[in-house]
Please model this.
Amino acid sequence: MERAFRLAGLLRLRELQEDQAPARLAASHAALRAAEQRRRDTLASLVGHTVPETAGSREWRLALTGRAALAHLVADAGVAVADAGYRVGEDTADWSAARGRSVGLEKLRDKHREAVAVEDGRAEQIALDEIASRRARADLAGP
Model:
């Protein structure tokens, strides 16, 4: 039996991918939180925006234009939140898939280690039996 696990390189690659996946997931969670905060801030600006009651038509139109622009920014921020949420879902799925790819190889590695240990035990037992057999022959042969 070959002592080295033949898929060790692939297992190291899979473990590296599995180690990197949580970092990407954490970054996408941070991006989601930032997008949600921008949406809340923009919404607060929209809520706080007032249209002057006593103003000329020019000021009134400027205020309405500003309010419409803020409404569009809130909508854009909502899209950014949805995109960031989608990214979180994708990164969560990637992390799960990376773990799944590693598990199978880890099981194969563990079985390989067990087989090598059994083979080592068998070889050791054969050597011990041979030593005992030689001693018994020597004892029978006498001094």
Observations:
- The radius of gyration is 35 Å.
- The longest helix spans residues 57-141.
- The helical segments are 8-48, 57-141.
